[in-house]
Specification:
The chain is an alpha+beta fold. Helices cover 23% and strands 22% of the residues. The strands form eight sheets. Strands 1, 2, 6, 7, 8, 9, 11, 12 and 13 form a nine-stranded antiparallel β-sheet that branches. Strands 26, 27, 29, 30, 31, 32, 35, 36 and 37 form a nine-stranded mixed β-sheet that branches. Strands 14, 15, 17, 18, 22 and 23 form a six-stranded mixed β-sheet that branches. Strand 1 and strand 2 (37-41) form a beta hairpin. Helix 8 crosses helix 9 (630-643), helix 9 crosses helix 16 (800-819) and helix 11 packs across helix 14 (750-766). The longest helix is centred in the middle third of the chain and has 24 residues, at 556-579. It is elongated and about 130 Å long.
Amino acid sequence: MISSAGIVPPLILPIPGEYDSLRTEVVVTAATDPDAVDVAARPGEVFQTPPEGPPSTLDTIITPEAATVSYLPAMQLLVQDGWPQVVGPFDQDAWVVGALHGKSPLADMLPPGSPVPVYWVLEGVDRRSVDDPDSVDPDNDGGLLNRWYNSEVPGVKPRADECHRRTDPDQRADTALHTWKQRMMAGTWAESVPAETALGLATADGDWSRLRVWTFGADGTPLPAAASLAALAIADPDLLPAHPVVAGCGVLTDNVPVRFYLRFDVWDVDQSSASDPKGAPRSLPPDTVRLIDSLLGSEITGTQWTWREAAAGGVLEVPRPSVRTATFHIRAEFPAGQQIRLSRTEKRVYPPGQRLVWNSAGWTARDSITPGAWTGLEALQLGTLSQPVAYWIGTKVRLGAAYQQPRVDWFKRTTSLTSGATYIISRTDTYPVAAGHRLDLYQTAANPVAYFVTDDDGEVSGVVFDDVVPGTTVRVGLALIVGLPSVGGGNTGTLFALSDGSNVPSPVFAAGDFLATNARVPLSFVGFNSGVVGAAEGPATFVVDADRSNFATGNTAYAAALHALKCGKLTHDAVVLLKGDSVNLPQRHDFQLALTSSTAVTVALAADARRPDRTETTLPSNSSWFCSNVVPHEYGHAIVNWLGSALPSPGTLNATYAAIAVTNTIQGSPPTWPGHTAGAVINSGVALDEGLAEFVECLMGYVKTYRRGHTSLKKHGSVGHPAAIYLALASPTSSPQSLSRFTPAQVRAVEGAVALALATYLLDTTKFPGFAIDTGPASGRFRPAQAYLDDWLRNKHHDLGQLQRMFRWLFTDAVSAYYGNPGNWLLSGPTGWPAPQLQTATYPSVEGHLTQLKTSDPAAGGGPPTPEESYRHFNDRYLVPWNLEP
């Protein structure tokens, strides 16, 4: 072999000493197809004499590199295992040459990114020089196949016997030699040969013999043969720069087309993929693809766009002179009516009547390497048939947000509320933020340029067009706001976490979004140009960190706010599922976080200059932050206020304020009258207000805690089971006792009995275990509310209709009817219990609520839906044991 590089042109041996004498004997011209070149050689009497081997004529075709070769008859297709594409047909007989193992030695010799020929088609083969069984010329030995078979060519070892064995018996010839030659000439068998192996002669055309050369990449992508052959000068600078074929092709490369193999992808949030369950790339077919002069803004003429299919995209061709000195980028235009959903959790779509236009300037391709703009492009090809350069059309957004929760056990405080609680915190867990948060994208401006809404995993999946521009830093903000959707024709709602309310002495975090750049492990996208705000696969997630040793430091207040919103959203969702709709549920509820030592409190507030009608919960750090049981309890108060029309009814709201004054008096001055008369514990407004809130708390996973003797407001060691206090006062097995023997705080514990009576009746009857908001194993915490219902409904005997009927009867319908009519409340004053300063104020009582349940007895007027759904069953099994019957 002459070349040490292992690759040579397919005509004219690389013997530099003979090049000058061949200049008039070899002519290289562009073929009619721009991918091919024609090489003409005048055989005459001129011979080349290699250092080893016999002389050869100029029209001798030689293998350009160590390869597998197949003969391809004219107008036939080559279909063989291992070939990336179907080859052919060609006008003349040809050799199809494939680099051994699919890799050319050129790959390691050319600059990175250069197209490398792996397959060659040498068209214009004199068939008789390959196989001429009818020859009677004594100087003709029947063609080169005979020489190969007779082992006359070094390095060529035909597999004739193997070919004969692997051929169907009815297709075999009489001998292995004839079978092998037959299949070789039909293009159904291939052999491996070294570089510079003779492959016969080029077809004669008068005084010239002509060979047309084609080259292809590893996946069958057509490459300009002139460029492939000119590149050999780089591969073997000692032998090939002056080679007549190589030098001739170097002149032709100035006019070969430059090809851009392109695909345009949009992030489709409605699909799923192996790498991401919340989206997949979808190829968009453009109407037109143009090259734009970036300096002039005008189109570069002479381009041609050809669409192939979705996976491969299309091909843009442009004359090389048009881009060698230009600064340019790509512009793709897509037809109007593209079905593009902008967010997986929302109904926003790309305007269907708007034409989508995308420019590549400033962006990089999905490979993170290929730019979207060029100056003086020298490359002849970008991408390939099987691996086009893919760009994101629009910015893919895949983000996630989470927060840390120091594991606070509300029931294991080391000191009392009045002196300031101290928690024993065993560990810190991390949870995704609630569904319904808004994740905002910021660039240079203070206002967000785009937003997306989180799902149950605290993630967003979406796409944004135009609003996000390349080259600047993209920052991510998390709004401390959770949207509550309308369900069943009900109202929408919003949960806010704030630190600037009237009940908060000093802000614990700044107004506005939490910025992911402020997380302990910050997240931002500097010099953004990739088209993806997210990770390479799946979401890029930031965590709002919390300091479990000092709630006043770092991002702890933000984490506490996110925890409150998470618990509030889950409680709201649970009530919606049990109620069946969101009618008259909170339209706005604010969580006010404060670094104080007090108790959580929820109030109803009429609209003012700053905010609309709302309920508001103050969450002090010492008693409420990260306490998962507190938020359902306080949000239960909010639900009662909204269901009972305290909001937005001014009259009912005023009556509620007056009732609060009454119940505060009751709490501070326990009566001395026993029994179920007007002065009985059952008529304490605190017992109902707190009992209903604790009922909600029980449903959210704390019914077992209540049954063990702990409520959300207190823990009594000396009296025992808090809910049993009323049993001690008036037990069915003992005579009623005076309340005077108990302290005010102990008397309030009767609410636990109210909560347990309602909750155990509902849960025991339906066998529904409740929503384990933050109880049980870590894998079961903070799941979407629907997940708990789905688990329960896997038992075919469980009845969602019964669960919803009972919940509406016991809670939402009863609250709406009773709390919404202050005229039905108990009257305080001289004839009521006790006598506050407001002589005519009324307040809701347990007795009134239970009377409402009796009035709306599902068994009235006929048989109940199920035997257990009746007031009598409720009274006998769940009220009488607590002496709660009205």
